[in-house]
Amino acid sequence: MLLVFITLFIQNILALKQRYHTYKEPVTRVTPYVSEVIDKTCLLNPDKGPCRGEIIMYYFDPKTKDCSKFFWGGCQGNGNRFDSRYDCIQNCLRAPDGRRQRPRWCSLTFDYGFCFGSLTRWYYDPIWKVCKERIYSGCGGNRNNFYNKEQCESICTYQTGVLKTQTKKKDRVKKILIINPIGATSKRGKSQQSTTKLLNITTNKTQ
């Protein structure tokens, strides 16, 4: 009797092991999301620039739709250059929900740099929420530095809907005394008396 019990116990253990190894998780079908490049600057080849530095930066590869490291010389180059892989992806790929955050460097103050050049560049002013023109030394500085206004706006003012409202100016009005000459008459022959009217200073018309 004991032998039969031991045999059944061993068979149950072997059956449980076989069931565990043959179990398959249910397969869920997921529609792959195709990322979309949202900035033409991200399609440029990485440019080291003419300087001789070796600063680790990131560039967007349109073939793999991913961001990789490269060595930047420290000056010039192009806009396909980012401080981190996160910034690279945020700037170059549209999220599945279609939203995109403004890069953090758009909030930085403009930095002239430490060279002696005089280059025209554009930067984003976070207070006025517009892109402005400034003179750049040619090296150093920060990421809030763009070659032209279009590049600045495409990165820092996309879909922000900068609202320009025009407030109607209040009419400035003052009283004036119109004194008619003695003996003046109207077209109907009635004598004209001195009257007080309102003069709209904005339109220069009486009311």
From TrEMBL:
Pfam families from the UniProt entry: Kunitz_BPTI
- Gene3D superfamilies registered for this protein in UniProt: Pancreatic trypsin inhibitor Kunitz domain
The record's listing under PANTHER family reads:
KUNITZ-TYPE PROTEASE INHIBITOR-RELATED, SERINE PEPTIDASE INHIBITOR, KUNITZ TYPE, 2
Which residue ranges have biased composition labelled Low complexity?
195-207
| Alphabetical list of PROSITE patterns matching this protein | BPTI_KUNITZ_2
**Which portions of the sequence form the region Disordered?**
186-207
Q: Which GO terms describe its cellular component?
A: extracellular space
Residues annotated as signal peptide? 1-15
Q: What range(s) does the BPTI/Kunitz inhibitor domain occupy?
A: 42-92, 106-156
Keywords on record: Disulfide bond, Protease inhibitor, Serine protease inhibitor, Signal
The GO terms this record gives for MF are: serine-type endopeptidase inhibitor activity
Decide whether keyword tRNA-binding is in the record: no
Q: Which residues form a coiled coil?
A: none
Q: What is this protein called?
A: BPTI/Kunitz inhibitor domain-containing protein
